[in-house]
Design goal:
124 residues, elongated, 6 helices, mainly alpha
């Protein structure tokens, strides 16, 4: 009876579970296609404002908007830029975990994080 209520609640809520997620559980990014507003950090906001001031420092034509700046910039993004952006999104620990995974795949091992760090740091 209790399990049935929990199952019904999970179906209604979209099967979201509460509590901590497991280490091996990967979060899948879902794009919200209805999102039309994006936020810029204060540090980047100053840069955007400076660019808009420079772009609008002209005698003729309509104002250059943030939308115009973004649209033009998006055309310039390359695959290498995306790789750099993805690399910058990793935390230090995620970089170490990726290195461990690559090492295990390359040598066909199943080292734990501790064993891997001992091996890389030459500690015994």
């Amino acid at each position: 009876m209790i399990n049935n209520k929990e199952e019904e609640r999970e179906k209604k809520e979209g099967s979201k579970k509460r509590g901590r997620r497991r280490k091996d559980e990967k979060i899948v990014y879902e794009l919200n296609k209805d999102q039309s507003k994006f936020f810029v950090d204060k540090k980047e906001l100053k840069r955007v404002q400076e660019l808009l001031l420079k772009a609008n420092n002209k005698d003729f034509g309509s104002d250059v908007l943030f939308k115009d700046l973004c649209t033009y910039s998006l055309e310039k993004v390359t695959e290498k830029d995306l790789e750099k952006i993805q690399e910058n999104s990793l935390s230090k620990m995620e970089k170490v975990e990726r290195s461990l995974t690559d090492y295990n795949k390359k040598y066909g091992l199943k080292l734990t994080m501790g064993d891997y760090l001992l091996k890389k740091l030459n500690l015994n």
